[in-house]
Sequence to fold (291 residues):
Amino acid sequence: MLQSGQQLDLVFAALADPTRRAILARLSAGEATVNELVEPFDLSQPTISKHLKVLEGAGLVSRGREAQFRPVRLNAAPLETAAHWIGDYRRFWEESFDRLDAYASELHRKEKNHGRKRKRSSK
Amino acid sequence: MAASANAAASESIADRTVVITRELNAPVRIVFEAMSKPEHVIKWFGPVGWPLTKCDMDFRVGGKFSFAMTGPNGVQNTPFGGTYREIVPNKRIVYDNGFEIEGAGRMVHTIILEEKGEKTSLTFSTLFDTVAMRNEHVGMGFVVGVNSGFDQLNDLVDTMARSAGRKG
Fold:
């Protein structure tokens, strides 16, 4: 799992371009050759290849081995990592503190109950 | 790390900090207890669906902690952790934190607890190494950088992850 800050930098940088997002969206429907990726865009093949290199560097796509066709595939794992990180500092802690609130209240209730039991048993 | 150290030197602490405040419905000593022992921390730490599956804590000044969460896909994520720098019972905990990966960014968390009768006011502040790291964590860097909404990206990422999952 690629998860360092630097890896996230690469993923976010790769996603920060509309053509690359469109390429990823296309690949989410299934693998494609470079030529198939060139068609829907008004861009040259070297330009598409350059974008693919960025996506590959971020671990978002991989290329097949067949020299002639080399189909390009989407790798979803770094996207999941990115999704997990996106804006989620607040969500992470706010959800944690919700749970802490519930858990600490429960501890407090238990303590009060134990206290009562102790008092009763000491009589 | 030299680059980020230089960046940090020229970036104000305020710009590198994010603060969350809460009121918790239990007395301060209970909240502190819930934060200071692994058997308690494991019960609340992390978002729903991401339980701690590693929770090592040596809760004393200079002691280390190491946590890891397991997500809905059942795979344990990269561990993260750091060192407790200050512990003032029922008042204050300061610790550093970051992924246990060479070169990963670091942050320093400061927890301040204040007694409000039977309730506790909690201030949780995080100082990131750099403004870039802070923005990455709160999502702003990406949104500003590409002039595109968060939700949009979330949707895109979700859709792609889902459709890739279906095929895989």
